[in-house]
């Protein structure tokens, strides 16, 4: 096991070539390392569930850095951190950020890199004496990953007001604690959470830097890429119900085994997306068998299908096809099936105008352009419903994410900083002139 600190590993192969215009690779490495110690696991990952004390401590650390950098800092009722840096003029801000919560035993870059990249841009301006033309905000959203309740992007939804209060109030964590109990334990309340929606006229643009969580940039040997859109996820809960029985005394003929139907269904789901688009995907990542005994024919099988695509019509068509497939597999085995669309979020494309501006920024920094979609959801997906939005992906080694082995080289991370910095400066000049 590599016992070096995250900072040492980040700096090992970094030669300082991108320490330009106030950007400091050592500072970014140091801060990534500090956050990596909050909720650290034995194998070098992190465990910072949303609305946990670990997530709260990570936010407090970022708030300290924000204050030192000259931001006015506050938290809303959802625990979102809002750091605002004054500009030459008042008005809508250019905002950037991400999250600091993690999946269980997650990596050190998913979320924190976006937060610290946005902060590093402001640190660079401070060192060079640059005053942004309009206000600049760094945002740290609560509970993006969904590891607490199985429902993610709650902080950004609270900020934009895109919440179903009844659904959120019904959430419970794995210990059976209600949403209200969990949020009160970290110093807020359900009532404050639902009052966190802000006037979105205060935000003129939102940008997010994030690790790719895939292999395309690495395979193309690109340090960073332009996100052309964020696929919209739809989660379909499927419950097959049959008849339990003794595994030895129940003849094979006439059995109503829901696990057989579920197995057939899971096998077929993987072949369905190709008929809809090149970007469509469908995944069964959760399956519960009851009563789950070695010598018992199951009575019930619960599973969830995660269905995504960049095009809403294609995604919704795939959802319908998955429904039809579940019903057919159930009928063929003589079992019942219940279907419920647990969540559905529309895909969010990045406008061609914004992507063209990003392409120009890549060119100015002598970086080859690569555009790719995001299959994962992000806070940018929620903000992008209301304000102009851009995303920049940074290369992920091996495409590994949600794992302690998650890694992005410091040089690639710093390319992300310079891209965000130059893009923000261009956008803010444009916003100031409007």
Main pleated sheet: 9 strands, mixed
Mean pLDDT: 95
Tell me the distance between the termini.
Answer: 54 Å
Shape: elongated
CATH class of the largest domain: Alpha Beta
Helical run tally? 14
State Rg. 23 Å
Second CATH tier, the architecture of the largest domain: 3-Layer(aba) Sandwich
The fraction of residues assigned to DSSP E strands is 15-25%
CATH superfamily of the largest domain: Zn peptidases
Helicity range:
25-40%
Q: Could you name the CATH topology of the largest domain?
A: Aminopeptidase
Tally the structural domains.
2
- Order of helix and strand elements from N to C terminus: HHHEEEHEHHHHEHEEEHEEEHEEHEHEH
Layout of helices and strands, plus pairs?
Layout: H1 6-12, H2 25-36, H3 53-68, E1 72-75, E2 81-85, E3 93-99, H4 112-128, E4 136-141, H5 154-160, H6 165-169, H7 179-185, H8 190-193, E5 203-211, H9 216-219, E6 224-230, E7 232-241, E8 245-246, H10 258-269, E9 281-290, E10 296-297, E11 300-309, H11 312-333, E12 336-344, E13 348-349, H12 352-364, E14 371-374, H13 379-383, E15 389-394, H14 410-433
Parallel strand pairs: 3-4, 3-5, 5-15, 6-14
Antiparallel strand pairs: 1-2, 2-4, 6-13, 6-15, 7-11, 7-12, 8-10, 9-11
Helix pairs in contact: 1-2, 2-4, 4-14, 10-11
Summarize the structure in words.
The chain is of the alpha/beta class and 434 residues long. It has 2 domains: 6-230 and 348-433, 3-Layer(aba) Sandwich (Aminopeptidase), CATH 3.40.630.10; 232-344, 2-Layer Sandwich (Alpha-Beta Plaits). 36% of the residues lie in helices and 21% in strands. The chain is built from 14 helices and 15 strands. Helix 4 packs across helix 14 (410-433). The longest helix has 24 residues, at 410-433. The model has no long low-confidence stretch (mean pLDDT 95).
């Amino acid at each position: 096991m590599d016992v070096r600190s995250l900072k040492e590993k980040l700096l090992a192969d970094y030669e300082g070539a991108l320490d330009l215009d106030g950007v400091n690779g050592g500072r970014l490495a140091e801060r990534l390392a500090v956050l990596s110690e909050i909720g650290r696991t034995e194998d070098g990952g992190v465990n910072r569930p949303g609305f946990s004390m670990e997530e709260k401590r990570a936010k407090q650390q970022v708030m300290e850095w924000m204050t030192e950098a000259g931001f006015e800092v506050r938290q809303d009722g959802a625990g979102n951190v809002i750091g605002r840096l004054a500009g030459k003029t008042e008005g809508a801000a250019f905002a950037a950020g991400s999250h600091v919560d993690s999946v269980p035993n997650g990596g050190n870059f998913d979320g924190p890199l976006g937060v610290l990249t946005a902060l590093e841009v402001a640190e660079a301006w401070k060192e060079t004496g640059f005053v942004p033309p309009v206000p600049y905000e760094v945002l740290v959203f609560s509970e993006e990953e969904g590891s607490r309740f199985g429902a993610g992007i709650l902080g950004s939804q609270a900020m934009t007001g895109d919440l179903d209060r009844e659904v959120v109030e019904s959430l419970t964590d794995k210990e059976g604690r209600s949403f209200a109990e969990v949020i009160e334990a970290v110093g807020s309340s359900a009532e404050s959470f639902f009052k966190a929606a802000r006037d979105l006229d205060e935000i003129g643009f939102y940008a997010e830097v994030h690790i790719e969580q895939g292999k395309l940039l690495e395979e193309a040997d690109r340090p960073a890429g332009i996100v052309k859109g964020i696929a919209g996820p739809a989660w379909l809960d499927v419950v097959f119900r049959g008849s339990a029985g003794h595994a030895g005394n129940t003849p094979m003929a006439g059995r109503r085994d829901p696990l057989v139907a579920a197995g057939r269904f899971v096998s077929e789901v993987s072949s369905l997306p190709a008929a809809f688009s090149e970007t469509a995907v469908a995944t069964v990542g959760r399956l519960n068998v009851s009563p789950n005994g070695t010598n018992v024919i199951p009575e019930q099988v619960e599973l969830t299908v995660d269905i995504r695509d960049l095009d809403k019509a294609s995604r919704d068509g795939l959802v319908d096809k998955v429904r039809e497939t579940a019903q057919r597999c159930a009928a063929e085995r003589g079992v019942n099936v219940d279907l419920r669309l647990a969540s559905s979020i529309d895909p969010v494309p990045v406008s061609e105008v914004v992507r063209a501006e990003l392409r120009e920024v890549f060119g100015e920094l002598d970086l080859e352009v690569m555009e790719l979609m995001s299959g994962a959801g992000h806070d940018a997906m929620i903000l992008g419903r209301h304000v102009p939005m851009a995303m920049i992906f940074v290369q992920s080694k091996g495409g590994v994410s949600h794992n302690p082995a998650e890694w992005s080289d410091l040089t690639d991370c710093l390319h992300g900083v310079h891209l965000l910095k130059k893009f923000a400066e261009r956008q803010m000049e444009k916003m100031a002139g409007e």
